[in-house]
Design brief:
mainly beta, hypothetical protein yedk fold, 3 helices, single chain
Length: about 230
């Protein structure tokens, strides 16, 4: 599962590749669960009939979905990824899935552990031509005990046992998983799709990816981070 990714450092890429204005609060570039990042969704007033309203908007939110029933935001340590096979049933995600609260997480790259040497080697995975990746996700809005409204998001995943690149990552005995990376021509379709059509987008990416081994380590607040997603 992906617990570490890099958001767009060049804010103009939001306009060029995703057709949306950059978020007012871009958040961090290097993101782990619980950090504040950005996601793209269909504009909240898109159906108002106002030509001045853009079709999409980019908002700041927590990486890790906080469901409406949560008592606090600590759940983000377990809800940064949602398995497409169980997302419709799991309490943390089922409301956002049922309401088709689709979003796109714009990323320069994401990271996975390569265990082929016998040790976990952090590996950076990005578009083969340097283009950003549009990752399919779900968003939510949670009201904290203090009354604050907090946006959050999760990344959707699929099985990657047959994917030529992503099957190389994670421990040998573990199921191979990968993020749902959307083809650029399907961005609008995903953001507007009704819940009944959501599963049609849950498939391995068939575009070109490149990977580079890294030497960086997780920050101190992520050292005890779970290596496997708790299926919430």
């Amino acid at each position: 599962m992906c617990s570490h990714y890099q958001a767009l450092k060049e804010q103009d890429k939001y306009r060029r590749f995703f057709g949306v204005e950059p978020p007012a609060e871009p958040g961090r570039f290097d993101l782990w669960p619980g950090y504040r990042g950005a996601f793209i969704r269909r504009h909240a007033q898109a159906d108002a009939g106002d030509e001045a309203v853009p079709p999409r908007e980019a908002l700041a939110g927590l990486f890790g979905l906080v469901p409406h029933w949560s008592q606090d935001s600590r759940i983000v340590k377990h809800t940064y990824n949602a398995r497409s096979e169980t997302v419709a049933q799991k309490p943390s995600f089922r409301d956002a899935w049922r309401k088709a609260q689709h979003c796109i997480i714009a990323a320069d790259a994401f990271f996975e552990p390569d265990w082929r040497s016998g040790k976990a080697v952090p590996t950076r995975i990005s578009g083969a031509e340097g283009e950003p990746l549009g990752i399919a996700g779900l968003w939510s809005c949670w009201r904290s005990p203090s009354g604050e409204f907090v946006h959050s998001y999760t990344m959707l995943t699929v099985n990657a046992d047959a994917h030529p690149l992503m099957r190389l990552f994670h421990k040998p005995a573990d199921e191979k998983r990968m993020l749902v990376i959307l083809p650029p021509q399907r961005y609008g379709d995903w953001l507007q799709a009704p819940a009944a059509d959501s599963m049609a987008f849950m498939r391995p990416y068939d575009g070109l990816l490149q990977c580079t081994a890294q030497t960086t380590q997780a920050p101190a607040d992520q050292i005890d981070h779970p290596s496997a997603l708790k299926d919430c």
